[in-house]
Design a protein that fits this description.
Chain lengths: 211, 211
Amino acid sequence: MSSPTRKKAARKSPAERAAEISDAAHELALEQGLSAVTLRAVAARVDVAPALVAHYEPDMQALIASTFASIVAAELAEVDALVAGLPTPRERLAAMLATLLDGSRVDVTVIWVEAWAMGRRNEALAASVRDEMDAWQAMIRGVVEAGVASNEFETDDPAAAAWQLLGMIDGLNAQALVRWGDAADRGSLISHAVEGMLGLERGALAPPSVG
Amino acid sequence: MSSPTRKKAARKSPAERAAEISDAAHELALEQGLSAVTLRAVAARVDVAPALVAHYEPDMQALIASTFASIVAAELAEVDALVAGLPTPRERLAAMLATLLDGSRVDVTVIWVEAWAMGRRNEALAASVRDEMDAWQAMIRGVVEAGVASNEFETDDPAAAAWQLLGMIDGLNAQALVRWGDAADRGSLISHAVEGMLGLERGALAPPSVG
DNA sequence: CATCTTATTGATCGTATGATCAATAGTAGA
DNA sequence: TCTACTATTGATCATACGATCAATAAGATG
């Protein structure tokens, strides 16, 4: 327990303490959202005086931005690894949609939504948001381009299609944040939509669970 | 000018003053986002003491919620009126997509995004968000159902398709908030996606501007 | 004109935020 | 052991938020 009568934090190396602080920010963001990453909340979690956090992170807006970036980049790497193992672009795309829309990533969705909102008053965060959106779009674009190259997909503009896909995914996830109860058939419906976008026959992207 | 040396506000009828206050909240939200709707900011805009705003709106969270609701409901009415004049469901759907994705509604998009984020700490707002999402979904569902009835559209579940459409629109608009530069071909791409979703032939929803 | 109702206000409280700085105490090295 | 370095802290500042309340003054009513 971080007892209210904390005596004094053990002295640690700057590298270790800095890691503790950014880890705490990371966890705090996943548990309670980006807006919960405050000087005092991070300090309390590390069980350290607020001034120490300020010492290691002189700019909280920057800490929020880097926390956002690390969380989102980790998610991208995870999905990328999952998808990279699959043989065809069609399977990769289907798996990507299934994974990103299975509702198991509410915590990261909250962070995206908060980042969009907070980015309007935190320029460092806004820059991170742009960077991470670019990275996601690049990953999706890679799958689309591979599909076009193998004649599985059909589109004039893989880059634009990737943006479109990313927007659809983000929007549906944000929606699920509020309307988690409903939204039953999300999987098959977005599959049909993407089939239409990429010139696939109906059912080509059907999630395995539905068959 | 709201001079810093304001003497005293003219005495007005409660109805008039209440209207001024909610109007100020409304404008403030459209200009600077929902998070700019604070006790003091509203008071400054009406050129009145903060305590007066608190007198008329004892709960700021409620004022934020009602401000959100009125803005979003007005937008829905506007789009509804625009779409109602068109003869076929296909045209109505195409016009709806074109209007909602033409990038001319950044202010309202900001409000949606902030509402999703703030709703997590403002229960009244969260309820309003759910209500307004339901209202939007109902409107879209009406168009989809009409299209199914006239055999123009094909879907097993118009309600789910409407949720899907709403999510896609919201996501793409939120994306444009950050990435307004790019996203060139949004119109035709989402049209193809929706064609796939509703079993339409390619190009059936093409925006008139593209032909 | 006198009185009453009430719209309006100033002052103030409690909370939360980020930030700064001199003082303290643990630890490694001479 | 003694010293120098520095990780850590308490105290404090400035700002912003919502909320409350007694006091004031404007206008309606008689």
